[in-house]
Amino acid sequence: GEGFFCHQCRALQPPDPTRDYFSLMDCNRSFRVNTTKLQHRFQQLQRLVHPDFFNQRSQTEKDFSEKHSTLVNEAYKTLLAPLSRGLYLVS
């Protein structure tokens, strides 16, 4: 679960506000990014946190799922494109 889920109850936890896009997407903090690896990581994370997988869970977990999914989408889009990746690096 990579810190996404509680170890005891397995409930989805809120996103870590201190985690940057590079660590979330398991990439080195560099302008050079392996986009194939990035895409695989994106798919892996969405299989973990996408809201479609939380229909039968609590409203809190549904909300956390939406936040995680949005964050993963933003990280993926930002790191995929060279311009936005470069701007993110210097921000």
TrEMBL record:
InterPro entries: HscB, J_dom_sf. GO terms for biological process: [2Fe-2S] cluster assembly. SUPFAM superfamilies: Chaperone J-domain (SSF46565). One of its GO terms (cellular component) is mitochondrion. GO terms for molecular function: ATPase activator activity; protein-folding chaperone binding. Gene3D superfamilies: DnaJ domain. It comes from the Eukaryota. PANTHER family: IRON-SULFUR CLUSTER CO-CHAPERONE PROTEIN HSCB. This is J domain-containing protein. It comes from Ictidomys tridecemlineatus (Thirteen-lined ground squirrel).
